[in-house]
Design brief:
oxidoreductase activity; Rubrerythrin, domain 2; 184 residues; mainly alpha; three-stranded antiparallel sheet; Ferritin; globular; binds fe (ii) ion; disordered C terminus
Length: 184
């Protein structure tokens, strides 16, 4: 067994080999290193642009985590519910990574996720796709303009991660396309 650490979220993973993606933030394996080789990222000053982009990113990730939590709670399908729950955890982890970069404390109260999603699965799969697309577009631009290497790295990883969410959503969009949904 080895101990690994993710360079994006910093969380440790114990296993026989590197996972293909970080189980916490979803970063691909190239961001996962042996804990033995870990070096703390150096302290740096945030530019005003990055601070504003991180603040927007925090709102986006919090909203998406609430959306996915709501979606898994309303889903009657075991597989879809599992996917939404997994994505809720990943997006909450992204919010946590961003909060740390901004130097903000953990929120004390959990926000209410009721009414944050649609009533039926098919609508939520489509909405998930749109949310991930918006996140990818935003992070791509934010990665491009960030001049701090650490911020560029995090935004770049987030683009890669949210792309895997689109792939996952597309898979279910096809599988469940026959589902009735009066909302769309
Ligand atoms: Fe991670
Ligand atoms: Fe995210």
């Amino acid at each position: 067994m080895e101990v690994f650490k993710c360079r994006i979220c910093g969380d440790p993973y114990v296993g026989g080999s590197k996972p293909s993606h970080c189980p916490f933030c979803g970063a691909p394996s190239n961001y996962i290193i042996l804990a033995h080789d870990w070096q703390e990222p150096e302290a740096f000053e945030l530019t005003e642009v990055s601070k504003a982009d991180l603040e927007h990113a925090l709102m986006l990730e919090n909203n998406n985590a609430l959306f996915y939590t709501c979606a898994y709670e309303v889903s009657m399908n075991v597989e879809l519910s599992a996917m939404f729950k997994a994505l809720a955890k990943v997006e909450a982890e992204h919010a946590s990574v961003i909060r740390k970069l901004l130097g903000l404390p953990k929120p004390i109260e959990e926000e209410d996720n009721r009414g944050r999603c649609q009533a039926l699965d098919q609508g939520n799969i489509k909405e998930a796709h749109d949310r991930e697309k918006r996140a990818i577009d935003f992070y791509s631009r934010a990665a491009e303009v960030a001049i701090e290497p650490r911020i560029k790295e995090v935004f770049t990883a987030l683009v890669e991660i949210e792309k895997t969410h689109i792939e996952l959503n597309n898979k279910y969009l096809g599988t469940f396309s026959g589902m009735q949904n009066p909302i769309i």
